[in-house]
Amino acid sequence: MSAAERTDNTSLVPHYSFPGTLAEQEAALETNPLMQRLLAYRKRYQGDSHRPIYHYVNPENTLNDPNGLCFWQDRWHLFYQACPPEDPRQHWGHAISDDLIHWQDLPYAIYPNPEERCYSGAALVEEDRVIAMYHGTTVGNMVAVSHDPLLLNWEKLTGAPVIPKASADGSPLPYRVFDPCIWKKGDHYYALSGSILPHAASGRRTRANFLFRSSSLVDWDYLHPFVEDDRFTLVGDDGACPYFWPIGDRHILLFYGHMSGGQALLGDYDTERDKFVVTSHHDFNFGASEPGGVHAPSATPDGKGGVNVIFNMNPAKPTEGWNQIMTLPRRLTLQGTDKIGRDTLLVEPAGDVESLRREHRQITDLTLPANQEIVLGSIRGNAIELMMEIEDNDAPLIELNVLRSPGSEEYTRIAFYRERGFRYWELSESWMRDMLAAVNDGAGPGFFSSSLLSDEQREKLAAATYSLISIDASHASLAPDVLSRAPETGPVFLDRDEPLRLRVFVDKSVVEVFVNGKQCVATRVYPEREDSIGVSLRSQGQDARVVSLEAWQMENIYE
């Protein structure tokens, strides 16, 4: 029977009701059969060489998008698209944390029926309840609410979609119903439905987010497309998994594009017209999201003017019984505008990741001789954190290799290219005038070589040039079933005298690199050799200096 022919989508997964107080809920979870099953499933994967130990991975079977990240009654709640083994349709899985790092599994939260599958959505925390709005496939967008301490019991309003996928009379709708997010302004709730619009010129689709308003959560009025002046999203991409929140004195719309992965638009919320006026854009994925790339976001305000976001990441190798993982939570904040007027979005690890550290190692004042790989014999591991500050001394390339085998048969290469990114010519007009004047005075076209610039000219050019951070996994694994990913390369602006500061998280099959609190790149890697645990550094062209390098082994959050 096809999905369209089904009249009862009741899940085959056991569903339990829980008492109302925290003490009673915790006692009930101790003996709950589903909880015992989830704990047993986790033990099956102990020793899996590619399963992360301090990034969140669901306990059983596969997962997809994170959903409804929120903070309720002193705990962080993470929901996600889970596919239970006996009924591998999307349910909302559930985990809680006191610090965004140590996660405790809970029973499935939201089960399908009347919808066929519980797709992505967001959560809104009110004083006395949490509202989840999500896409129920085949029927439309659903609303469910929970009041209890651990958000174990959920009730679907009306038992039917509040924004149906199709009109009652079959007439065309001016919008598409897909992944929603929800917020409140005044006495009204607002919801975005992430989807697509045809592009007027080419006929190809573009990102669209349709805005709805309600005073009751049950009856919703369609208003209009929400986003204005988006000149950044790729033609052909879409706006799935939206999350719209204030950040500093602006607003941010995080979303997932099925072409180009996790990203965000920054701008201003025109509350009179209910329009989001976009001023800049930020990528979290540099290239397609598959294989091995950052996927969809789930985000919530951090209560301090920033936004906490977590993404799922796609696999690049078959792994028996499980596939995707979550990134570390990231804290996003705004810090004014950069030299070309773009919003400066800061990206740093969120939560108490420092609590995982043990077996500290430190190196200070280490010279990196030009063009010589330095292997750090005292620093090794495949579940580690590295924190370092490097003075590159105008070296064009600094390399950090992790998960390196002794003979370099396998290694994951992290590369920093100083001032090798895009150059914004409108900021270097005075430099260009100097160049043209020199040519007119007979200097010749060779004067355009950056190696011949004066210090003043070099400063002008640097002020308009981005650097690049890259993770190259092309030598990360010898396994024949690993899908290669092109180097993950993102822009990051560093001032001329600003040292390179890296914070690198290696966790079995994932590498995440935070750069000067301004950028993060991440990818999946799958080293096969047991001795692929080494770390090395290299400076190209001329000497550089490691001011400090600290390393920690990281604890397993599931033990």
Write up this protein.
There is one protein chain. With 559 residues, this protein is mainly beta. Helices cover 8% and strands 45% of the residues. It contains 4 helices and 35 strands. The chain has helices at residues 22-31, 33-44, 429-440, 455-462, and strands spanning 62-72, 75-83, 91-97, 103-110, 118-125, 130-136, 140-146, 155-156, 163-164, 180-185, 188-198, 205-214, 221-225, 227-228, 240-247, 250-257, 261-270, 275-283, 294-301, 307-313, 325-326, 330-337, 343-349, 357-368, 374-380, 383-391, 397-404, 412-417, 467-472, 488-492, 500-507, 510-515, 519-524, 534-540, 544-554. A hairpin with a 3-residue loop joins strand 6 and strand 7.
Main attributes?
single chain, 559 residues, mainly beta, six-stranded antiparallel sheet, 35 strands, disordered N terminus
- In DSSP terms, counting alpha (H) and pi (I) runs of 4 or more, how many helices? 4
Unreliable parts: 1-5
Q: Determine the mean pLDDT.
A: 91
Strand arrangement, major sheet: 24-35-26-31-32-33
Q: Kindly state the percentage of residues in helix.
A: under 10%
Largest sheet composition: 6 strands, antiparallel
Distance between the termini: 43 Å
- β-strand amount: over 45%
| Rg estimate, integer Å | 25 Å
Shape, principal axes of CA atoms: globular
User: What's the number of extended β-strand segments?
Assistant: 35
